[in-house]
Amino acid sequence: MNNNARHSIRDIISNNEIMPGVFLMWIKAPEIADAAKPGQFIMMHCGGKTLLRRPISIHRTDGSKLAVLYAESGAGTQWLSKQKEQASIDILGPLGNGYMIKKDAKNLLLIAGGMGIAPLAFLAQSAIAESKRITLLLGAQKADTLFPDSLLLSDIKCIVTTDDGSAGIKGRTTDLLPSYLGEADQVFACGPAPMYRTMYKNNLLNNKPCQVSLEVRMACGMGVCYGCTIKTQNGLKQVCHDGPVFEFDDVLWDELVDI
Ligand code: FES
To answer: Which of 67, 76, 91, 155 supports an S-S bond with 59, CB 3.0-4.6 Å?
Structure first.
C-alpha cells in the first residue's frame, strides 16, 4: 500500500449533481488532501450496498478538502449520490502512482474523454500552480453530458468536442489530437478504452510520450488481490499499485481486455 495512504472517516462538505447522473462531492480530509498527487485515487466505502470499496479519482484539492467526481453507475455510487452534507464517509487514500509533470515542460496537452476529466482537472490545477500552460481537449457524447465550463479553471485553454455536435466541435477529441500535438511538451490522457484504442491503432501520438490513466475493475485497491493486473512491455502490472497512470507505449493495448 502507498506509504502516504490513510484510512479515515470524514465529513462530506457537499455532494451535488453537476450534470445528469454525475456528482461532485467535496470531503473534509486534510491528511489525504495534503498528500494527494494528480492521478491518484481513493477507495470509498459505499455503505452496506457493496462489499467492496469503489476506486474514485481525486478530482481537486483545496486546502484541507478534496473533491471526487463520480457517475451513478451501480448500487455503490447510487448510495454515494444520496449522502448529504455532514454525513460521514469512509475513505482510504491517496492510492496509486499519479501523473508526473516534467520540470522543464511548459505546454501540456490534456485529453479528457467523458469522465476522464476527473483526474485531469487536478493535474491542470497542479500544473497551473507551476506556471505551465494547459490546453485541454474535452470530449463528451452530447452537450448535457459535457463537464461544465464554469467548473474548469479559467487559465485552461479548452477545446470542446461532442459526438453529435450539440456543443463545441462535432467529433471526438482524437480527431483534434494531431493538430495540437506539435506544441505540446507533454501529453496526458484519461478516457474510455475506445479513445485509447483509437490513439493506438492510428498512431495519433506520432510516438510522442503520453501518460494515460487506466480505469479497470478493482477489488482491494492495494496490490493484494491481483484483480487489476494488465500486461505491459515490462511484464504484468497491477493498475491499483503500479498505476493507474502508465506510459502509453508501455501498455499492451491488444491484450487489454477488461477496462
Ligand atoms: Fe487488488 Fe489491484 S485491485 S491488486
So the answer is: 67
